[in-house]
Amino acid sequence: MKTQLILAALIALPLGLSGCDKKPEAPKVEASADAMGEMAMPTAVKHGKGIGTVTAIDPSKGTITLDHGEISELQWPAMKMGFAARPEVLTNVKVGDKVHFEIDWDGKAGTVTAIGLEP
Ligand SMILES: [Cu+2]
């Protein structure tokens, strides 16, 4: 008898809730201009690996230019392009080196996070 009452309560509970047609109002939050700007920015960073040749290094800007092959993780064809780079990346290689590298791509700009000489 007690079990039946509990079962009845369990069945009645969701039915009772669905019988309420009033939708909860969305909380009204004043979004600041800064918050909207952040929301518009894609924040998902993708990681890619590639092989290429160093064509330029600019230590003052912290950038490296790579003539790289296809990067399948980012669905990129082969191209020549510049990246920001971690400081150690700029000192590990020189112009003309054939390298393998890893990049973080935020949808707008890439940063070379690791680099090494191709054998
Ligand atoms: Cu590229």
Notes on the structure:
With 119 residues, the protein is α+β, with helices and mostly antiparallel strands. The chain is 26% helix and 35% strand. It is elongated. The termini are far apart. The protein binds copper (II) ion. Copper (II) ion (CU) binds at residues 68, 76, 79, 81. Copper (II) ion binds at residues 68, 76, 79, 81.
Summarize the structure.
The radius of gyration is 27 Å and the shape is elongated.
Per DSSP, what share of the residues sits in E-state strands of 2 or more residues? 35-45%
CATH superfamily of the domain at 46-117: Copper binding periplasmic protein CusF
Radius of gyration: 27 Å
**C-alpha termini separation:** 78 Å
Beta-strand segment tally: 5
Shape: elongated
The CATH topology of the domain at 46-117 corresponds to OB fold (Dihydrolipoamide Acetyltransferase, E2P)
Mean pLDDT across residues = 81
> What is the number of helical segments per DSSP (H or I, 4+ residues)?
3
| H-E order | HHEEEHEE
In CATH's first tier, which class of the domain at 46-117 applies? Mainly Beta
- The neighbouring-strand order within the major sheet is 1-2-3-5-4
**What fraction, in percent, of the residue positions are helical?**
25-40%
Q: Ligands in the structure?
A: copper (II) ion
Summarize the biggest pleated sheet: 5 strands, mixed, barrel
CATH architecture descriptor text of the domain at 46-117: Beta Barrel
Which class do the helix and strand fractions yield? alpha+beta
Low-confidence stretches: 15-20
